[in-house]
Amino acid sequence: DADPTNEIQTISVVADTLYLSGGGNVTLPSGSLWDSGDASSIVTPERVGIGVTDPSVALEVNGDVVVSGELTSMSDGRLKTDIRNIQNASLIMAQLRAVLYQFDQSKHSADLPEGERMGLIAQELERVLPELVHEQESGLKTVNYLELIPLLIASHQEMAASKQELASKVDQLSKDVAELKALIKMQQD
User: Which of 43, 95, 113, 127 could bond 37 through an S-S bridge, CB–CB 3.0 to 4.6 Å?
Assistant: First the structure.
């Protein structure tokens, strides 16, 4: 409905009933997607599938996902231990093969995206960064592309430092060449 006054503002659960602040309620069957639990929260099942009949992870979506807000990951430093800088990121990145590809629609029952895509091959990435590859119950492999971002940042920082070091050496060599030219000119005069 296009009328904004009909939008749901609050959802609450009491016993086995879901109440909507915009009016109305729904009786929840026991063990359904929505479970009243302690009557103070909505509890979802262990796994949710959208367009998937048997999800293999907490949330599995067959199709595109659009988020109008932010998609964030827990990253508070107070929750982390053994924090170290990533070393040799450029060498690690050099071992990865970025590819263009298309999904073979005949190889999977899910609706795979059509058209040209870009990414990595999970089996190849697994040889370099096994912690970024996960195997689903079906045996298919998935890639945690978000965890590549810190590696990309570290690689960029290494290249920027290397560029600065080379620039300093070029400056020094330019000064040395200028001094040698001046010495040669003095000896020729």
Answer: 43
